[in-house]
Amino acid sequence: DAKTTQPNSMESNEEEPVHLPCNHSTISGTDYIHWYRQLPSQGPEYVIHGLTSNVNNRMASLAIAEDRKSSTLILHRATLRDAAVYYCAITSGTYKYIFGTGTRLKVLA
Amino acid sequence: DGGITQSPKYLFRKEGQNVTLSCEQNLNHDAMYWYRQDPGQGLRLIYYSQIVNDFQKGDIAEGYSVSREKKESFPLTVTSAQQNPTAFYLCASSGQGRFSEQFFGPGTRLTVL
């Protein structure tokens, strides 16, 4: 199974961009890269996903390295409500998701 | 509203007892999952099911059992064989395909007394 590695924590100032990295060097060619975020005592919620090309949605952007061994979740303007634990996940096979240990994002006012 | 429900929100168990955590979804998803989360830790897969009457062990299945008799329901039983069951348990579901988004329930916090 693929494995993902993320920094334990990061800090950002409010209204500034945040780049959250994820390493997935053992990813296979058909595995998708997903990002989720989790607030305390809640279930994770979907943020974004991609395969090879960079992706944008209303919440964030996903930048995928050309060799697909790493990716970066970009929050363009961090707000206090973006403070959460962000998980990078790889789909291994059709249904199995491999989650990393997550990055705790602290947003400073 | 479509979504996933888990019950109860909090559960207390005495040592040696089996307990069952409920998970129901009305999203018409084929796949359902159970994860365990310990304080400050990530998500670890316990069991997952791709279709009714079929399920596979995840990374930490020992001491747990599941059933999938209906598409909407995927209950998890924490047995007395689970050595350290105190944790936050999350249920999720997804459609078909590697690109499918997982939808998570609100979680059940299990505490062993």
What is shown here, in short?
The complex is a heterodimer of chains A (109) and B (113). Chain A has 109 residues and is an all-beta fold.
Description:
The complex is a heterodimer of chains A (109) and B (113). Chain A has strands at 9-13, 18-23, 33-38, 45-50, 55-56, 61-64, 70-75, 84-92, 96-99, 103-108. Chain A contains no helices and ten strands. Helix content of chain A is 0%, strand content 50%. In chain A, a hairpin with a 3-residue loop joins strand 8 (84-92) and strand 9. Chain A is globular and about 40 Å long. With 109 residues, chain A is mainly beta. In chain A, the strands form two sheets. In chain A, strands 1, 3, 4, 8, 9 and 10 form a six-stranded mixed beta sheet that branches. Chain A has a four-stranded antiparallel beta sheet with strand order 2-7-6-5, with no helix packed on it. With 113 residues, chain B is mostly beta strands. Chain B has strands at 4-7, 10-13, 19-25, 31-37, 43-51, 54-57, 64-66, 76-78, 87-94, 102-104, 108-112. In chain B, the strands form two sheets. In chain B, strands 2, 4, 5, 6, 9, 10 and 11 form a seven-stranded mixed beta sheet that branches. A four-stranded antiparallel beta sheet of chain B has the order 1-3-8-7, with no helix packed on it. Chain B is globular, with a radius of gyration of 13 Å. The mean pLDDT of chain B is 92. Classes of the chains: A mainly beta (109), B mainly beta (113). Chains A and B meet through strand 4 and strand 9 of A and strand 4, strand 5, strand 9 and strand 10 of B.
Q: In terms of quaternary structure, what is this? A: heterodimer
Radius of gyration of chain B: 13 Å
Helix-residue proportion of chain A? under 10%
Number of helical regions of chain A? 0
Number-wise, the strands of chain B total 11
User: How are helices and strands ordered from N to C of chain A?
Assistant: EEEEEEEEEE
Q: Report the largest inter-chain contact.
A: A-B, 24 and 28 residues
> Unreliable segments of chain A (pLDDT under 50, ≥5 consecutive)?
none
Describe the main β-sheet of chain B briefly: 7 strands, mixed
In round numbers, the mean pLDDT of chain B is 92
Main sheet properties of chain A: 6 strands, mixed
**Proportion in β-strands of chain B:** over 45%
